[in-house]
Amino acid sequence: MKFLTSILLVLFSLSGFAQQGPGGVGTSANVKVWLAANDLGLTNNDPVATWPDRSGNSNDASQATPGFRPIFRTSQVNGQPAVEFDGATTALDLATNIQSGEISAFMVFSSNSPAYEIAFQTDSNIILTRSGHVGTGSSSPWKPYVLSRTNNTYSLFIYTDEGGPAGATQRIYTSSKTGFTTRNSLYNLNSSVLGARALTPGNYDLHLDGQVAEIVVFDELLNSAERNIVAEYLGAKYRQTTEKGLYSFKTNFRHDVFGIGQEADGNQTSADNDGRITFSNPSGLGNGEYLLVGHNNGNFGASTSVPTGITQRWNRTWAFDETGNVGTIDLVVDFDGAALPGSNPNNYVLLIDTDGNFANGGTTIVNASSVDIGSLTVTFNGLDVSNATVFTLGEKVGDIKSDDDGDWDVAATWDCNCIPTSENNVQIDHNVTIDANAAADDLVLSSGSLTFSGSDTLSLGGDFTLSSTFNKGSGTIAAVSTTFQQTFTNSTGSTVELHNLYVNCTDPLILTTGDWEIDNNLQISNGGLDVSGTNSTTMTSDASTISQILPSINSPFTGELILQRHISTRNANYGNFSSPIEGATFAQLDDELYLSGLTGGADGNATVGGGGIFYSVYAYNAALGKHDTIDDINDVMTQGVGYELYLATTLSTFNDTTLAYEGTPGSGDVAVTLEGGVGAWNLVGNPYHCFIDFDNLDQTNIDSDFYIYNSSTGAYNVFSFGTNTLIAPSQGFWVEKDTPGSDLFTFQESDKSESHGSAFLRRSNVKRNTFHLNIRESGSALNQDLLVRFSPHALRTYDEFDAKYLPSPIKEVPALTSQADNSEEDLIAFSTNNMDLTQIIPLELKSGKESDYIIEASDLTAVYDNYDCIYLKDKVENTLIDLSVEPTYSFTSQEGEFKRFELIVSKDYQSCQKTLDGESSDSYSQQLDQVFELRSNTNGWWLDYSFKSDYQHQTEVRVYNLSGQEVISPSRFSLEKSGTLQLNQLQELNGIYLIQIISEDEILNKTVKL
User: Scanning 239, 637, 686, 835, which has its CA 20 to 30 A from the CA of 27?
Assistant: First the structure.
């Protein structure tokens, strides 16, 4: 809350308020008379000489002749008084004749009329009653129009006439009935009278036998919304049925109901009825929507039945009743003559409660948007009343200061012997610890210290001024003002370090003065962040952790931030990078990295062997399938695009360093264009200072695998969709197009995922049920993995389990690849169906130079879970290597590509041996699907078999679920000739299963429903 530097309270009487019409509709300009019996202040049975007009027009109703005066009666309708007319002599003349034919009249009355009587007349219009009816009439010729009602029962009667000549429309309402008629000519009665007709002034007849509690007459045709609001005002006051039934709180909050609303023929968008509350500017008012308010008739004295953090409130409370959704409103409270005792108006707040009990919880405290001491008003802008019920004016606890060292949530720490809330301005001059969630409005850390001891949140609705020691711990500072623009000021003379900063303000949070650091999370959900007034604002990174800008609004930043990215020690090699800054140039990297071949750079040009410039930075041209050199330090790093940078401190190593990108962080949607046709590689990059989850990215135009260069091995590692792999900030990665032509690839804020590990991705995430064959040059760190995945769903053709080979930019990196049956694409990861009995998988060797090489098998468990033997065959050396015994094989190769190896796996040793001996499965002429047949009947499942040979066949039956898991122990049988075998082990199963029948070197798979 912003305090005025000085306060001058001058309390005035209530008389200064402008006159408003009933329900806040109209003013003295169009309300010609407004008579309410509760204004009379008489004693029961007193005669009424003058009934004062509250319209502001002094159009009092009076009777000079004592014998013609009606009688005042108390407690006649809903506890309200009324004026009684005797049906014989009584009448009241208005001081001013109402001459307009256009009229909107409202009357709450009762009558016992045996014949026609006139309840009210103007110069042009009449309200008449007769036995069991009420209505109006017109002249030339006489034409009555009435609706039925109950005698001696109070009702609300509404009458409108659009004025003008005969043929105009009259509308009447009473007792839940509405009627329309076309009238004849208007009257010309020369006077306005209540309780009788007067053809000439003072000559009365057709006297009313009944009571009138209130009458309001407008000299214009109100729109439907205005008419409905006036009706709700009278309906609540007198407990009467209204046409729309818009106000529900007629029991406890029936006083001075007013409101806003809209219908197709017009609206009312601002209202003030009781002189205390005004609201206006609905943000979403539509046809048929209303907001009505009434109060409990409490006084403006103080109640201490209040929530924590509030000292007192008015006894008077109001209730909101919203029909539809009017959006937000601006609400003004006038405290002229009704200030809370001993209060500081700058601490006034609006209290909104769910049940009207402000001491039992459920109270929302709304800070004022402004306080005007001159006009004695407090304003609340943009108030959301969608969930509001009861409200009133309250005073929050004023400024609080620390009184001793201690915890924030201990009352003894503070001079108020209370715990500060979001409504309090707080000053700290001691050592205060936050060990639970805490809140304040303005916060000044003037001396002492403020320390987070845990992962708690300090929510601030106002400014934060730091002039002393702040210890961030693992806590969160949240800027949450919905009213004022907040400013955090560093007056410590040193860097203020924040762990988490959360911004959810109406206006941008301003960081100003000095240096600021955020070492964990920054999130901007609303408002924005303005750092233009700081010396520096840094998102930090080191060897163990990196800060993050979590999913935020679009374009949240004003001013420049420094985004750090730590790069660890590694072999001198390429790395794939991207920029987290909008419009960054390669000059951003020049201070921390050795950049060669870039004009304008600080490092000059290194040379390659044999001469020529060594270019250390490349972009990839996907359309042409080639790398383009970056040769100007001022070239812009396109956000969302990846670049290859050669990282070297010496010829063999790169020493760790921290990059510092300075500028506006990337936010919102970042779209890049993928070039080339189907199968084209594109180098893209994480454009955010936050990890992104590959599974969250739009996969529409790309393959389900992506690749990241591993500078330690010199090869690309493959990562797969469906594993929630996180891509680090500033990390470049390769994707393969699977659509023709150019396509957009868009990063979004929703792709972000919180993680604070500092490392870039280095190892493949393909682990589950996967066997690895690694090939490396002897004595070198350069190596590449071949990944073999086993799945019952794998196909021999190229499928979603396969991943293509992306050659290293270093041609000396060796590789082993395979191919699918329907493709000549080299695969670095491929799938094979683990239901096959025996497989011979050809492997191609890619050797970048003549050298000695080593192949090493790992994750052999993935093989043993599916097969009983695994061999590597070197066709050049005619050598078989049993990888289960010798997982490492050394050999020599020339430079080039050679179809040199085969990987052999089998489910039984006999089949494996036959394959190793060179016996083709073609020599086994009888196929199992000609031997076996599965069938079922009411007694279960049966296996029919018929062998041509006479010897016994060792047969095994295995059962798998659709995930490839073996669900029962295998059953083994010795079968010969022909016969039938009942498969009892299937009787307890229910669902779809794969039945696998294995005999000799053949295998039969049948999918059945059990």
Answer: 239
